[in-house]
Specification:
Structural class: alpha/beta
Strand order of the largest sheet: 1-4-5-8-9-10-11-12
Number of strands: 12
Number of domains: 1
Radius of gyration: 20 Å
Distance between the termini: 41 Å
Number of helices: 11
Shape: globular
CATH topology: TIM Barrel
Helix content: 25-40%
Largest sheet: 8 strands, parallel, barrel
Order of helices and strands: HEEEHEHEEEHEHEHHEHEHHEH
CATH superfamily: Aldolase class I
């Protein structure tokens, strides 16, 4: 029998060869670790549906950030759980708000992490929607004004990056204009440009205490069936001044990640969201999968699809595993 001259298995025969020719290299330096800041001191409450993830007071967030930095993870993304909520989400832009205090505490600790902040109202409104509600509808333009104020307050507290996740039309342009007007031209915008109305957000809503009290978010978050629309959304946000864009969730939308990467020449991220994390944790706890192997396979898949950076609750575990493999 005559075999072909090309034998692909030659390049799979040892770990050394496989590593040498590996096309996608997952790196700790591409991770962003999401964190939930809550009121109080010394508070560290584990989220039941997200084992290993905590609602933490600002002092505990600082200690967690020390570990994040030591692991080589370059950035964190802060979500706030305020002491009080109202119809307008006014705590979101308070100078003494929960996220603002956490930013200041991290800065005071002299950590070198990039601090990104989620800019949205769902954690801060009494009704749980991502904007101001009038007559049962989320009002786009009125919401954008509040989001711009929230982003500005984060920048004033010391955030490097603000990340609007609300999916209101025109919010990136309004935030950019507001930041520039007040001397924060260097504060970057990471837009949740293609954020889908997904069933994978369930555990996050427990962690952030942000479930809507009525209806759902289909009127402003994207339809999971649409991919071409995502490209229009990304193009609009880049035109308005987004420095980076994100696709959320990650696993069920890798085609969208790939399409965005192919079409646009800006840094592209993907958010490996709470439900994706929770499924892995639950299956691993039942002994159905190898958590280490499956987690790194998922994150490698996200990177292979074209994500330059990955927001993931697995970041600390994955960093340890990747360091152990070196």
């Amino acid at each position: 029998m005559t075999f072909p001259a090309m034998r692909p298995r030659r390049l799979r025969r040892s770990e050394g060869i496989r590593a040498l020719v590996r096309e996608t290299r997952l790196s700790v330096s591409s991770f962003i670790y999401p964190m939930f800041v809550c009121p109080g001191t010394g508070v560290r409450n584990e989220v039941a549906s997200m084992p290993g993830i905590f609602q933490q007071s600002a002092d505990q967030v600082v200690e967690d950030c020390r570990e994040v930095e030591a692991l080589g993870i370059p950035a964190v993304l802060l979500f706030g759980i305020p002491e009080k909520k109202d119809e307008r989400g006014s705590e979101s832009y308070s100078a003494t708000g929960i996220v603002q205090r956490a930013i200041e505490a991290i800065r005071k600790a002299k950590l070198k992490l990039v601090i990104a902040t989620d800019v949205c109202l769902c954690e801060y409104t009494s009704h749980g929607h991502c904007g101001i509600v009038e007559n049962g509808e989320v009002q786009n333009d009125a919401t954008v004004e509040v989001l711009a104020a929230e982003a500005l307050s984060h920048a004033r507290a010391g955030a490097d990056v603000v990340a609007p996740s609300d999916m209101m039309d025109g919010r990136v342009g309004a935030i950019r204009q507001t930041l520039d007007l007040h001397g924060f031209e260097q504060t970057a915008i990471l837009s949740y440009a293609a954020k889908y109305c997904s069933g994978f957000y369930g555990p996050f809503r427990e962690a952030a205490q942000s479930a809507p009290q009525f209806g759902d978010r289909r009127g402003y978050q994207m339809d999971p069936a649409n991919a071409r629309e995502a490209l229009r959304e990304v193009a609009l946000d880049i035109a308005e001044g987004a420095d980076m864009v994100m696709v959320k969730p990650a696993m069920a939308y890798l085609d969208v990640v790939s399409a965005v990467r192919e079409r646009f020449d800006v840094p592209v991220g993907a958010y490996n969201v709470s439900g994706e994390y929770a499924m892995v944790k639950a299956a691993a706890r039942n002994g159905w999968i190898d958590e280490h192997r499956v987690t790194l396979e998922i994150l490698t898949g996200v990177a292979r699809a074209g994500a330059d950076f990955i927001l993931t609750y697995h970041a600390k575990d994955a960093a340890r595993w990747l360091k152990g493999a070196q």
